[in-house]
Write a structure and sequence with these properties.
- The chain is built from 4 helices and 37 strands.
- With 522 residues, the protein is α+β, with helices and mostly antiparallel strands.
- The chain has 5 domains: 92 residues, Immunoglobulin-like (Sandwich), CATH 2.60.40; 84 residues, Sandwich (Immunoglobulin-like), CATH 2.60.40; 79 residues, Sandwich (Immunoglobulin-like); 76 residues, Sandwich (Immunoglobulin-like), CATH 2.60.40; 90 residues, no CATH class.
- Strands 2, 4, 5, 7, 8, 9, 11, 13, 15, 16 and 17 form an 11-stranded mixed β-sheet that branches. Strands 19, 21, 22, 23, 24 and 25 form a 6-stranded mixed β-sheet that branches. Strands 29, 30, 32, 33 and 34 form a 5-stranded antiparallel β-sheet that branches.
- Strand 4 and strand 5 form a beta hairpin.
- The longest helix is centred in the C-terminal third of the chain and has 34 residues.
Length: 522
């Protein structure tokens, strides 16, 4: 019985010791801080306590460097309150009794000290309003920070921890980047003040440039001024474009401050690197006043055929084609959008009438356009001319050949002539002139040099079968081919290369006929 009692008493005592040890092992001091950041030149208050008991004293610990060991800075503190002015990692524990019993050390609290340094936040480029496709850079500058190597903290808290870079680059800015931005530096348990605030607005819309002109009509020999802008934003440079008409291509144009040419003008804004561009502005029409104050409607002079295409245009007297022109047919406006040319793909009789054009308040004289009906008999001038040439050409060619032959024959005939035969009045004359022909008849010979070959006209006596009592001498003409005579000149030889008229007797009825033949040779 006694042994049993002793055993129970021992177990109770041991259980009490174990329970007491477990309770002490779980007992931990609690550390609280009214603020975790010490303002520049100020302090914060720390409090240490042990719950559900009294009679405690407190020991205080601080780690001043990030990688150092905690050191006791104060012990046997009765109040459990500590005011600190330095940053660091703070903790505490409770103690009481003799021998001393210690609680577990409290959870550590980081206290940071603010130094009297204020960084500068800079926006590059300095555009408070940016667009979602643009890129900007925020820069945090810390001046006078001494030796600490700063890390950078951004607000809004884009990064979960401080970054080593002093720049924050916003690429293709999303709408979430809109708002107030600032920065500060952090080094160990030191903090700078927050920088100045930059308010950034990110617009999801694509901007459009706008163009303005002080005048829309250029005076004769003068100039006007154009200006381009992008609303509620800065930092733009501008590109200018010009075209002659709505159907022509844009051409990049310089010196928009001084415009002396008419046309359609527009602009766009660009900025940044990489470049960001706005939409092109709406076009502004600039009209030019010409010195001669005259415009001309260019239209067909001759009647046009139904179904043919026709183009009308408006030009200056210097033949410069005008754009933004209004065309009228019989004083009725054909179109009100303004264009460079009036094109009729296939004219009809209803298109006939008076036409005029208007440009910059100037009107051209009226011009009549006549339209003729197309018929099967009507052919184009080109085909008709071709047909005439096809018929006339060969005829003219043949006539030219015949004319050339006649001219050649005429030239041959000019070199020949014949002297008519005459009857001798005396027998003595007949005998002196007779050359190998019957002596009872008279002959006269004559010739013209005609190269190496000659033609002889011979006149031979002809004896009539009937009565020849009248004693008349008739001649008969014939043409014989000459042969080349040798160049032997005798007393009774005919001269070289002559034409001879040979005479013979002929009947009275044929005398005149043969005489005409000789005359034709002359």
């Amino acid at each position: 019985m006694g042994h049993s009692f002793l055993c129970v008493l021992g177990v109770f005592f041991l259980s009490s010791l174990l329970c007491r040890y477990t309770e002490a092992d779980k007992l931990r001091a609690t550390l609280t801080a009214e603020e975790t950041i010490i303002p520049a030149g100020g302090s914060v208050t720390l409090s240490c306590s042990v719950e559900a008991s009294a009679g405690w004293k407190f020991d205080w610990f601080r780690r001043g460097l990030v990688y150092s060991v905690s050191q006791i800075i104060k012990d046997n503190d009765l109040n459990g309150v500590l005011r600190v002015t330095e940053g660091g990692l703070y903790s505490c524990r409770g103690r009481r009794g003799d021998p001393v019993f210690h609680t577990e050390t409290s959870i550590k609290i980081t206290i940071e000290k603010t130094v009297s340094i204020k960084p500068s936040m800079i926006l590059r480029p300095n555009w408070p309003l940016i667009y979602s496709s643009e890129t900007v850079t925020l820069r945090c500058q810390i001046l006078g920070g001494g030796g600490p190597r700063w890390l950078y903290e951004w607000s809004p808290n884009t990064f979960k921890k401080a970054a080593t870079s002093s720049e924050y680059r916003i690429i293709r800015a999303p709408g979430s980047d809109s708002g107030e931005h600032s920065c500060r530096g952090r080094s160990g348990y030191l903090l700078t003040n927050w920088s100045n605030v930059i308010k950034l607005t990110v617009s999801p819309d694509e901007p459009r440039a706008s163009v303005r002109a002080d005048k829309t009509i250029i005076p004769a020999g003068g100039r006007i001024t154009l200006s381009c802008s992008v609303d509620t934003s800065d930092g733009w440079s501008f590109d200018w474009f010009r075209r002659e008409s709505k159907s022509s291509q844009y051409v990049k144009y310089n010196n928009p401050d001084s415009v002396s040419e008419g046309g359609l003008y527009s602009c766009r804004g660009g900025r940044g690197d990489p470049g960001f561009y706005t939409q092109n502005s709406t076009e502004v029409t600039i009209e030019e006043t010409y010195k001669d104050d005259g415009i001309i409607l260019e239209s067909p002079v001759h009647p046009v055929t139904e179904g043919d295409p026709v183009t009308l245009s408006c030009r200056t007297k210097q033949q410069k084609l005008l754009s933004s022109v209004f065309f009228y047919h019989n004083n009725t406006l054909l179109q009100n959008d303004g264009r460079e040319e009036l094109k009729i793909s296939a004219v009809s009789k209803s298109d006939e009438g008076f036409y005029r054009c208007e440009h910059s308040g100037q009107e051209s004289p009226q011009s009549w356009m006549s339209v003729q009906v197309r018929t099967a008999a009507v052919s184009s001038p080109v085909s008709s001319l071709f047909l005439v040439l096809l018929i006339v050409g060969p005829v003219v060619g043949v006539l030219l050949i015949i004319l050339l032959i006649l001219l050649w024959r005429c030239r041959q005939s000019k070199d020949l002539f014949c002297i008519r035969p005459k009857q001798s009045e005396s027998s003595s004359q007949s005998s002196t002139t007779n050359h190998g022909v019957n002596q009872t008849e008279s002959h006269v010979y004559s010739s013209v040099l005609h190269g190496d070959v000659s033609l002889y006209e011979s006149i031979k006596p002809h004896k009539a079968a009937g009565n020849d009592a009248d004693g008349s001498r008739n001649v008969k003409y014939s043409l014989s081919e000459l042969r080349h005579l040798q160049k032997k000149k005798g007393a009774h030889e005919p001269e070289e290369d002559h034409v001879y008229c040979n005479v013979e007797k002929l009947t009275a009825e044929k005398k005149e006929f043969r005489s005409n033949i000789c005359n034709s040779l002359l």
